[in-house]
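Tutorial handout. Part one gives the primary structure; part two gives the three-dimensional structure as tokens.
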Amino acid sequence: MATNAENIANLKTRRDNIYAELAALDSTKSGGTINESGGGASFDHVGYKDGLYRELKEINSLLASAGGVAEVTSEAIG
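Part two.
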């Protein structure tokens, strides 16, 4: 069973992957265009992208409740 620190690290990894996927969306990728249907197949591009945003919101909420959203660094002055 994963530790809390491992779970937080996994959530951060998934969050980063979602950010990258959203940033890479264009008209050639799933989620980057309007909904399509035809030839017996359809794809809900809008729903796919919306799902990524909903997942991102949930992950950020989980990280906030676990105290893991903000990453703070400090430097000694001297």
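Part three, for discussion. The mean pLDDT is 82. The longest strand covers residues 36-38.
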